[in-house]
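worker-3 :: picked GntP family gluconate:H+ symporter
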Amino acid sequence: MNGEDIRLVIAAVAGIVLAILLIVRWRLHPFIGLLVGAFAVGLFAGLPLADTAKAVQKGVGDIVGGTGLVVALGLSLGAMLHLSGAAASLATGALRLTGPKAAPWATLGIAIVIGLPLFFETGLVLLLPIVVAAAKAMPDNGDPDGTKLRLIMPALAGLGVVHALVPPHPGPLLAVEALKASLGLTMLYGVIIAIPIAILAGPVLARFVTPGVKLTEPVLSDPVHDLQPPHRAVSLFIVLLPIVLIATGELAKLVPALANSPLLAAAANPVLALLITNLLALPLLFGRRLGEESIQDAIWFETMGAAGAILLAIGAGGALKQVLVTAGLSDLLARLVMMYSISPLLLGWLVAVGIRLAAGSATVATITAVGIMPGVVAASGASPELVVLAIGAGSVFFSHVNDPGFWLVKGYMGTTTADTFRTWSLLETVISVAGLVMVVGLSYLV
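worker-3 :: tokens ->
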């Protein structure tokens, strides 16, 4: 590495550190903190201010223009499942079918299914109040807090693994597009490794970390309207429809007779799949009450409020990514991989871990990491699908105080800050490390 390379690395680290200080210490919104960090990287790296501004605009535009529609449509679907009572109906119905011993496994399965089309925070808000209520009704065997946590942690693990590893979540989906990976293969590999990782981080880990953890009464917010929940079969159909549409379109590419079907090719597009699901969900979930102004206001107020904050944050993450690329960090990493034989899977994981610890957001970590990895993938010949999964695993490493999800989980579980580190932060770290191990292992088989 020459002097310019060292300056670039220092600039990248300094810009990211500045962003985290603005977000954590001075409580600025991640949108502002990440934008300031992006401009700081350009300044420290010696980019002209005008070029840095163009990179910022391009980065925001690429992310919001590409991933923004998926985010908004996913959030609106989540709002419909929430307000109609469909998600609650699915969860409570499944838990009724299981005894106390099987309840943690049922919770894990419910979280994976419900979490597939939803943002992590949306899935958390939908599922945890139901799980907490179910935990209260279970026999406590002299350890009521441990009983609750052994039901809650599998739910968190199920939501966490699909958020990190399984498209069409926005983070993995963006990584698929940026690295030109196969969406179908990424989904297949993601599901293969997500299930054992969820078992390890959920029911298995809960047995070791829950003893001694004390819970306070959680503060739950569950705005439920006076609606008759739809039939569970309808609810499950809506949850699974976007996944089925995307998977069908991807599988059709492998069948020569269907490969040229424009209808099936369109079905594989996540935006179209989610739009179709939204349009079907409205009448199927709300029935005759769909036309009521209060119902429509509730759906779109809940959607747009969440979408605004998320889109701003990931847009600013895209700006930081683009400035790093424009400054030459992607090319530098590609040279280092070829020079020192660094595993692209490990490198992608480490970059995502660094951004995750600095910025807090798993989606921002994914966006930033994939933005500087295309050159590495091209130079090394690594499987882009596995690099996507390695970055996804790194993006959830050790959730801590600069992650809004940390405080959301703490409030819903009723744990102290120290016990949230002991349970939730450790759970995320297990997902991350086990994810890297599984991806590396899979690389020897495919």
